[in-house]
Each structure stands twice: as C-alpha cells, then as structure tokens.
Specification:
Layout lengths: L9 H17 L17 E4 L4 E6 L15 E3 L15 H4 L2 E9 L8 E6 L5 E6 L2 E2 L3 E2 L5 E4 L8 E9 L29 E6 L2 E11 L7 E10 L5 E11 L2 E12 L3 E8 L16 E9 L2 E10 L4 E4 L2 E4 L2 E2 L2 E6 L12 H14 L4 E4 L6 H10 L2 E5 L9 H18 L5 E5 L9 H14 L4 E6 L11 E5 L2 E2 L5 E2 L9 E5 L22 H19 L4 E6 L5 E2 L8 E2 L15 H4 L10 E3 L16 E6 L3 E6 L2 E6 L13 E5 L11 E7 L2 E8 L7 E6 L3 E3 L5 E9 L12 E7 L2 E4 L4 E2 L6 E8 L5 E9 L3 E10 L11
Parallel strand pairs: 22-23, 22-31, 23-24, 24-25, 25-26, 26-27, 27-30, 30-31, 42-49
Antiparallel strand pairs: 1-11, 2-3, 2-4, 4-10, 5-9, 5-11, 6-7, 6-8, 6-10, 12-13, 13-16, 14-15, 14-17, 17-18, 19-20, 20-21, 28-29, 32-33, 34-35, 35-38, 36-37, 36-39, 39-40, 41-43, 43-47, 44-46, 44-48, 45-47, 48-49
Helix pairs in contact: 1-5, 3-4, 5-6
C-alpha cells in the first residue's frame, strides 16, 4: 500500500491521497440493499465470512495465488489479527501488516454478471489481490468499500489475498505524531467486519435513498433517489418502480421511465398518497420497507429493498422535538470495543448493546462515539426505538491536507451508508472535541446537507464560544464542578439549538480536582458510589433548562484506552467492559415506569468485609421507581423513605437517601427493601451480610447459538450472596471447562480480583456442529456453577438476496 508509506514526498503523498479519495468516492459504498427477493437476473450475494486462512505477518509472497497456505490457521470473520485479553492491550502487538487468504468458487449461474467484492470493515488499511491481480487499496477502518472484479475470476477455484495494514496510518482517527496514546480508544487491527461476493447485471441499482418528507402533514411523501450503475449499453431506456410496503402489503407505488446516459446517474421518484401512516418513535418504532425495481422492457432486471421510518426529528431553540413533541434526550455514549475481540464482535453481541441501552438502562438515545458503528447495531436501534447520533472517525486531532480529504470522504461514506436508518437523528460532522477549522467544517456540513437535508449536523465542543462554529446544533461536552463539588451544568448557549453531548465521564466532582477518578469495579468504593449520583445530578440539572435538548452522558461501557486507564481499561462506563452493571448503572436502571417493571437498585453493597467495613456508609442511596420504600434489617423495621424530589426536581424517579449511621456490628444482618406504588407493594429485594452462604453465579446470556462458527454469546460469572446480589471485591480464580460444539474465547482461569468479583468470557459455536454446549465453572471457595447453550442449524441464507 505505497500510497501512505513514509518514503513518499509530502507533495506526492497528498496527490496519491487525493487520488485514493476520488477513487473511493467514485465507488459508492452501499452497493446492495438489505432483505428482499431480487429479480431472476438481478443482484445477488453470498457471504465469504467462513473458511478464511490467516497467516500472521504479511509478506508479498503470500499474496500470490500459488503460495502454499496449508500451514495457515483457519478462521472466520470478523477477526482480530492478534489474541487479546480483556485488559493490558499493547498496540505494538497489532501494529504491522497481516495476511489473510480466501479460496472461493463463483457460482456457474452468475456467468455474464458483473462481480464485486464488498468489505464491510477492515482495520485500518487493506490491499486486496485477486488471482494475482492487484485491486485498489483502501485506507480507513470503520466504513465499507467495494471492488469490482468483473473479468478477473475464472471457473473453478479463485484466490483472494488480503494484506491488512494495522499500523498507525495517516487516516482518521489515527495519524497524530504522538501515536496511539493520542486517541482515547485503541485500534486493534484485522478484518473486523464481513466480506461478501456480489453479482449484478450490467445496469443495476447501486444505492437507494428513501427520504420521508413532511411526515406530520397529510400531504407527506417519500422522495426515492435511485443511483444506477451502468457498465454498457448506453444510452438505454428503463423504468423504475418504487413501492412502500408494510408487513408485505403495498401501501403505495409509482413508476417512472428513465433514460440512462452515463455510468453513474441518479433519478428521483415520489411516493405520495399517504394520508395514514404510523410514525416511528421511541415507544413505537414503526418501520416500513421501500422496494425499487429496475426494469428494461417487461423484464425486472434488478431489485433493491431498504427499510425506513416516518419521523420528524428537529433540534430547535427550545429543545428537541420528535414528531412535533418536546422530547428530553436521555442517553449515553457508546464505544464498540469488546474484551478479547476488539472491534471484531459478531452481530449478536452488537445488537445486545442496543438492547442494554434501551431496555436495561432506559435510554432513548445513544451517541456512536467516535466513529461510525456497525450496521447490526444501527439496525437494532431502528427496531428498538433508540435514537442515534452518528459521527465520523476522529478524536481531537486534525491532520494534514490528505488526512482532511479522508475525513470528508468518511462523512460522505457514513451518510450514504446509513441515511435510511430511521434511528439516526443527527450527523456528527466534526472531529470530536477538535479545534475550530472553519473551512473544513463548512465542507463537512455542506456535504452532509447535500446528501441528506432531512437531518441536522453537529459536533462536540469543549468551549461554549460560537466563534468559528458552523454546525446546526451546538453540542457541548460539559465537564465542570459546581461550587459545592457536585455536577456543574452550564446554561445553554443563547441563540442556537443546544445539547450536552458528554458529562460526568471520569471527572472528580467531589474533590474538584479534574479528570482523575476511575470508576473501577475493583477500585475505590466511594468513587463507585459517587458515579450514579453524578449522573442523576447531570440529567436533573440539564432538564431544568427548557432550552437544553438533553444529555448524552459519558458513557455506557468501559473500553480499551491508553488515556487515564488502569491496565489499559478506561472506566467511565456505568457498565464494565464485559457489559456487566456497576453501581453507576443503578440510576439509569430505575428510570422506567413501574408499570413496565418495578426497580429497587441500591447504590451500595450490603457488605462489611475488609474493603467495605462501613457497608453503605452513614448515608446510603437507593434508586427506585417506587413511591416509597420500607427497609427492614433482620426482619425488624429500620426506615421508611420517599424520593428526594427537592434536590432532584427534574427527574421522574429521584434517588432515595437512607440514614444508616449509628448501626452497630450486631445490626448488620439481612437487609430487606420493600417498594410500594401507591399503597400496593410491587417489589421486594433482600441482601445478606453473611458471607458464609456466598456462591458462584454463572449465566449464559443467550440460550442458543447458530452453528455457523461465528455466532457467540457472553457467559458471565460473579460472586453473589444467597439472594443473588453481587458480593464486591471477591478474590480467587474462576476456572472454566467447556464440553460440546463450542469454543471458549477469553481468559481461563479468570482472576476475580482484577475486576472486583465479576467477569465474563464468550462462547463461540463450531461450524456445522449442532448439539448442546455445557460450560462448567469452579471457584475454590464459592463452589461450582454451570450453564447450557443449545446450538441449532444456521438459517438458510437466500444466496440471491441483495445483502
């Protein structure tokens, strides 16, 4: 990949970079729509995710078709180039070039069709070689790219070799002279997404953007922009038919005759007559399919299907409005890094993050920090009603001219790929927390509006100054302490729509000493208990400003970083890196109607061991959505409390404060908390101070997997008391054993000390092997536990479907 190696002069480097950007822009990314059944001779695809061979460090010889790869390791995608633990990642371990090879045969029925390779995500540079033919390289690790291979394949076996460059390249978000420590998340390399072989007719539907317009008016419509790719037979007459589908039923359709005069051309159709429509919202995320047929004469030659939702999302001076209704944004930021896997997580795990955010943490919004995230996650957000801020890759650093060309390219690629997602409400078009660059950000904002004028643009600011600012929504990372060392929230900037895009994070409000706190599960107990209160203060105080659209706080999950981290893990998440809740999650878990589920979540451990001699301390906090709580110790009434509405006036479910001072050692028995809504008891939880009955808890997150050799689920474990409440600061090793058609992914044995008494591994299915996976765990003092996971045949994929 010579276009970015250091041997080039700066002028040649920038010229090569600009050429690469032009090449990428001339090959649009979203080549095939999701779902649907194509025409008999239309586009079709099959997955190349299985049966790869990984050879370790790359060599030019390994790119040749005749190279002997029998010693390579069989792997499936997604894949990280190096084995990872859950902590102590070392960028030196993956920084280099890696070789992957895939043998495949083109189906005979695809003869006469155009062929493409589609790469979902490769971190961070890729040089593909097909049957010895060098294809154009790609740089950038978070967005997909295609390469046409028509005429380069032959009957029988073909060989795709891929050299993956995981070095610190001059491409967003990397490139800073400071190296990996300059970005607040690590970038482990590999083929971190899917690869597909695709076929299309000579003229096909490369991209469809179905944009709902005026959705709150009876005259609403969908503007359907179709991008055609034509290789021959120009000029040509064709017709386009667009239809809106709900549950397989055609709601409306239209047809338009077109003349195709060039290889890359766009046409727009309008779907009207939509007086009755179901709106997409956070409570009822209704979705529709838009299907477009390309016909020549009486023959349908291609079909493209995508999914949309009808919703009006707008940031105004007096807040955020969803479908005309003032809606307070209540969310968290999310990184897509996983323990043991890096960015190479399969779809099930990606979707699970969206489910945690929506159904457990009760968020209505998430910010994809600080890069475009996987389509599996975005699809889940569409289906669950979780609003999304999506932004281009970056972190504070703005590079040279070539780097900025690539940043602009990423904005286009991101929007083209994802603009049909109903969940996305705003585009992040400036590098996170970067200084103002008026020329660059005028370009990115203008580009975003030209590609999608139905959404506003934003980008995080660390100053409230609007000098040089050029976005539509002013988004501020508000990290400061109030005079009393609680969370400080500034009034909104006047004259602009306003959103808090980060707060709390790792800021030490209590001491007023800045960013020096680590909310580690194995760390300081007082800091752990502070976290939920700080998040509650931030949301309550921000909601006190009518003009503030809401808060997307920092952050959902711990993640790998070299900045203010402990053993390579940064710990601002209300969940740890294993997606297990910390005390900080107690606030979010309680912010749901008790009619949905009653919640009692103490922001303390009922534990009086050497690390927690005072238990909850003199004043404990319980988060609950009940009207009142009654507490009993060893069956005796101890306290009756109501939520603190005076100090948290803008929370629907404020915290409860309980005075525990004056308790002697004899009073440290079993704690029982009863929750009432009105006069009715709705939930009781108990917690034991007696450690003699503590046990090992083990749970497989999913009861079954598909037998594709890719699917996986988390298996979590922890020390718990007799009622199932986590016991903090447990020590010793959990040793795991697996029997059946699966593979254990993770540290075994796992030292509980390192993560405060809880941890997890993953279990991956074996390809083509059904049956039952049995996972057994043992601990020297907590005993044994086991879990079972059924493995079923993978769903038969329609090889002629778009994607």
């Amino acid at each position: 990949m010579q276009i970015w190696k250091s041997g080039l002069t700066r002028r040649r480097f920038i010229a090569h970079c600009a050429a690469a950007v032009a090449l990428q822009q001339s090959t649009p990314l979203r080549s095939w729509g999701a779902e649907g059944s194509p025409a008999a001779h239309g586009s079709r695809a099959f997955s190349l995710d299985r049966n790869w061979l990984f050879g370790g460090r790359s060599s030019s010889a390994a790119l040749a078709p005749g190279f002997d790869d029998t010693a390579f390791t069989p792997i499936a995608l997604p894949h990280c180039a190096v084995p990872l633990s859950w902590q102590k990642w070392d960028p030196d371990s993956w920084e280099g070039e890696w070789i992957y090879r895939r043998h495949f045969t083109v189906p005979r029925e695809w003869r006469g069709l155009r062929l493409f390779l589609h790469f979902d995500r490769v971190m961070a540079g890729a040089t593909p070689v097909l049957n010895g033919h060098n294809l154009d390289p790609h740089i950038g690790g978070f967005l997909p790219f295609d390469r046409e291979i028509t005429g380069l394949t032959h009957d029988g076996e073909n060989l795709l070799a891929l050299s993956v460059d995981a070095r610190w390249l001059n491409v967003p978000p990397s490139g800073s002279p400071r190296g990996p420590a300059a970005v607040d998340y690590m970038l482990p390399g590999g083929i971190t997404g899917s690869v597909e072989l695709k076929a299309a007719p000579a003229i096909f539907l490369r991209e469809v953007f179905a944009k709902p317009v005026d959705v709150l008016n009876p005259s609403r419509r969908v503007d359907v922009t179709c991008r055609l790719d034509a290789a021959a037979d120009l000029p040509a007459m064709a017709s386009l038919t667009a239809r809106l589908l709900q549950n397989g039923r055609t709601v409306t359709q239209t047809t338009k005759s077109v003349q195709i005069e060039k290889s890359d051309q766009e046409f727009t159709l309008t779907l009207g007559d939509l007086p009755q429509i179901n709106l997409w919202g956070t409570d009822h995320p209704y979705l529709y399919n838009v299907e477009v047929d390309l016909s020549r004469g009486s023959e349908v030659v291609d079909r493209y299907r995508t999914r949309i939702g009808f919703r009006d999302a707008r940031f105004e001076l007096d807040g955020f409005f969803l479908n005309g209704r003032r809606t307070q944004i209540f969310g968290l930021n999310r990184h897509e890094l996983y323990p043991y896997l890096g960015f190479a997580a399969p779809a099930r795990l990606l979707r699970r993050d969206a489910e945690i955010l929506k159904h457990t943490l009760n968020c209505n919004a998430v910010r994809c920090s600080h890069y475009p995230q996987s389509e599996a996650f975005l699809n889940a957000c569409d289906e669950l009603g979780l609003m999304v801020w999506e932004e281009l890759p970056g972190w504070q650093y703005i590079g040279d001219e070539c780097w900025q060309h690539l940043a602009v390219r990423d904005v286009e690629s991101m929007i083209r790929r994802d603009r049909n997602h109903a969940a996305i409400i705003v585009w992040g078009v400036r590098i996170n927390e970067s200084h103002n660059d008026p020329e660059l950000y005028r370009r990115t904002r203008s580009l975003a509006h030209s590609l999608d004028d139905s959404r506003q643009a934003s980008g995080t600011m660390t100053s409230q100054s609007t000098a040089g600012w050029s976005e539509d929504v002013f988004s501020f990372d508000d990290y400061h302490a109030a005079a009393d060392h609680t969370v400080g929230i500034d009034p909104p900037v006047p004259g602009v729509p306003y959103l808090i895009s980060e707060c709390v994070g790792q800021y030490n409000y209590r001491a007023g000493k800045g960013f020096n706190v680590r909310y580690r599960r194995a760390g300081d107990l007082e800091q752990q208990m502070d976290q939920a209160i700080f998040h509650a203060q931030a949301h309550s105080r921000a909601a006190g400003f009518q003009r503030c659209s809401g808060v997307i706080a920092w952050c959902a999950f711990d993640y790998a970083s070299l900045m203010n981290a402990y053993d390579g893990i940064k710990c601002p998440g209300v969940y740890d890196t294993f997606r297990l809740p910390k005390l900080g999650a107690s606030f979010y878990r309680a912010q749901v109607s008790p009619a949905v589920r009653p919640v009692i979540e103490p922001d303390f451990y009922w534990d009086f061991g050497p690390h927690t001699p005072q238990g909850p301390g003199e004043r404990g906090v319980i988060f609950s959505n009940c009207d009142r709580l009654k507490l009993f110790i060893d069956g005796k009434p101890f306290a009756a409390v109501e939520p603190d509405r005076a100090n948290y006036p803008h929370l629907k479910y404020p915290p409860f404060f309980v005075e525990f001072k004056g308790m002697d050692a004899a009073a440290r028995g079993e704690l029982r908390v009863e929750g009432y809504v009105g006069a009715a008891p709705v939930l009781t939880r108990s917690f034991s101070a007696d450690t003699s009955a503590d046990r090992l808890w083990l749970q497989a997150e999913d009861p079954e997997l598909e037998d594709d050799g890719i699917d996986m689920t988390r298996v979590a474990f922890a020390a718990v008391d007799q009622f199932g409440a986590q016991r903090p600061f447990a020590t010793g090793a959990v040793t795991l054993a697996l029997d059946g058609p699966g593979v254990l992914v993770g540290d075994n044995p796992f030292l509980l000390d390192a993560n405060g008494g809880a941890g997890a591994v993953y279990v991956k299915s074996k390809s083509g092997s059904g049956g039952v996976i049995r996972v057994h765990a043992s601990h020297p003092s907590l005993g044994d536990a086991s879990a079972e996971i059924a493995v079923r045949p993978a769903g038969q994929r329609d090889l002629s479907a778009h994607s």
